Write the structure tokens for this entry.
Amino acid sequence: MPKSANALVVMAKAPLVGEVKTRLAPPLSLKEAAELYRCLLLDLLENVRSFEGADLYVAFSPAAAAALFHEITPRDFVCFPQRRGDLGERMASIFEDLFEKSYERAVVIGSDLPVFPSSFLRDAFRALAGSSDVVLGPSRDGGYYLIGLSRLVPEIFTGMPWGTARVLQATRDRLSRVGVEPSLLPGWFDVDTVEDLKFLKQMVSTRTQTRTSKMIKKLSILRDLPYRL
């Protein structure tokens, strides 16, 4: 049985060269992009491991990376492989499995969220414990960095324009058609483009030393990027 009524899942890819953050190359090399992603992932796991309001999971891909994730993931998390399919199918299966385990509320976040405020997680679970069936965290690129459910809403995981700037609006439109009004968290960002790198450089410049901030300082290609967009 679950220890908590809440489940928090980080969806993560193995930080393999040529498999992650390829849109950052150039200006980064594929190796640098993979190293940056690894830093983002490890910093996020370190950040959210102290969140006490939920059982913690990492849903990883590919399944063959099981040994890697069990090595790099803090013991606070339970690791399991993502199922096959597009992003929507994989997220839907995660929620299905969690609700089958008798969780009342589940939140899924991405793995590349720099200096992610833990208050967003508290707000998400608080909304789901209230009157909201769905909570979304809008990202700067038109998608969402967080999705939380208190019941399965399968309509929002099929036929969506994954990987485009229309994902958030398409999700809200689909929810409207089935009579669901989502709660919205403050906007945040993930790291997919050079513009995101500029914003990341600004954010980590004012923070304590993390793997990501050290990596940013190490990347000579970023030294000439302006701090502000």
User: Anything to note?
Assistant: The CA atoms of residues 142 and 169 lie 8 Å apart. The chain has one domain: 6-222.
